[in-house]
Design a protein that fits this description.
By secondary structure, this protein is of the alpha/beta class. The protein has helices spanning about 15-25, 40-45, 55-65, 80-85, 85-110, 140-160, 185-195, 215-225, 250-255, 270-280, 285-290, 300-315; strands spanning about 5, 30-35, 50, 70-75, 110-115, 115, 165, 165-170, 170-175, 200, 210-215, 240, 245, 265. Strand 1, helix 1 and strand 2 (about 30-35) form a beta-alpha-beta unit. Helix 1 crosses helix 8, helix 3 (about 55-65) runs parallel beside helix 5 and helix 7 (about 185-195) packs across helix 12 (about 300-315). The mean pLDDT is about 95. Bound molecules: serine.
């Protein structure tokens, strides 16, 4: 039986991944941890919960020993837009947390899952069907930290035999916890505004194609990769995974099928546009599909239908 620690459990991915992990492996076998003490009820009371700053290596080590942890999901991240405003902090947090875990894993021998991102690619990367192995010279500090993290994880795997694994996530669309300041956030905010105000001002241009994924698929990708047979993994850090690629117009048209009077206008944020333009339009994720049977379940229409249904209920809107 796995004994799991989720670091950054109150974030966009962590808040839903932790709940699913507890369903699969049992509540007491999944420890949630976050720097914030004020977290959703489920997280705090659905199983063990620890308040910890991921940069506090001693405390992370104490938790791993206390709960006899064998697998860590390291979800601590400062995203792309916030990272550009605070590059020092983005580097310190994104790499600091990972370096602490990698160093501890040499002695305590646990597996580590660390998400990478479409942000690990840059303007010189081929934009369509971006291959698994290609040019990776990102233009944001977020991307620089993600590529560095990928390389560090590969290094620790090869040199010390640590079981490091990762996926390059696209923009993730979810309805529980808001993303924390990324370039792809418009694809989440649009749903809240469409339901509550019937209108949305998009900060990226029409024609800005980006890879996206619905949260249930993102959660499954992380868990399935950690369950995969290590002998089948031709890559470790990190696998391209995708589910859909769309631009703001396509998403707005999909939403209009459910909310016909929805209207979208544009006010471009040039800084975000530059970041989005430097990322892939669509990734080739065939290695993930071949090596560990990655399959997405939601496309743009099933995701939109589920988002609207779930959010309407949660926001109490008709
Ligand atoms: N969603 C992230 C961002 O926009 C990309 O991984 O920063």
């Amino acid at each position: 039986m796995k004994r799991i620690l989720v670091v950054g459990a109150a974030g966009q991915i962590g808040s839903e991944l932790t709940v699913k992990l507890r369903k699969i492996y049992g509540n007491s076998n999944v420890v949630a941890s976050d720097i914030k003490a004020q977290v959703p009820y489920d997280l705090k009371h659905g199983g063990p919960f620890e308040v910890v700053d991921c940069l506090n290596k001693q405390k992370i080590s104490d938790i791993i020993v206390k709960y006899n942890i064998d697998t860590v999901y390291n979800l601590v991240a400062i995203l792309s837009a916030v990272g550009e405003a605070k590059p020092d902090m983005a580097w310190k947090v994104n790499l600091g947390s990972l370096l602490n875990l990698l160093d501890l894993s040499k002695e305590l021998q646990f597996a580590i899952m660390t998400p990478s991102s479409i942000g690990a690619f840059g303007d010189s990367t081929p934009k369509d069907k971006t291959p698994q192995e290609t040019i990776m010279r990102p233009d944001t500090i977020y991307g620089v930290s993600k590529v560095s993290g990928e390389l560090l994880c590969d290094y620790y795997h090869k040199k010390y035999g640590i079981d490091t694994r990762g996926v390059r996530y696209p923009g993730i669309i979810s309805n529980v916890t808001m993303p924390g300041g990324g370039t792809t956030d418009y694809a989440v905010e649009i749903f809240y505004k469409a339901i509550q105000e019937r209108k949305f001002t998009c900060n990226l241009k029409p024609g800005t194609f980006l890879d996206m994924m619905y949260m249930p698929d993102a959660v499954d990708a992380a868990i399935e990769l950690m369950e995969a047979d290590p002998n089948k993994l031709r890559h470790r850090n990190a696998y391209n995974v995708s589910a859909m690629s769309f631009d703001p117009e396509m998403l707005a048209n999909e939403i209009k099928k459910h909310i016909p009077d929805f209207k979208m206008k544009y006010k471009i944020n040039n800084d975000l546009q530059k970041i989005a333009d430097s990322w892939p339009n669509s990734m080739d994720d065939s290695f993930a599909r071949e090596d560990w049977d990655w399959q997405h379940k939601f496309d743009i229409s099933t995701m939109t239908e589920d988002m609207i249904k779930t959010l309407k209920k949660r926001l109490n809107e008709k």
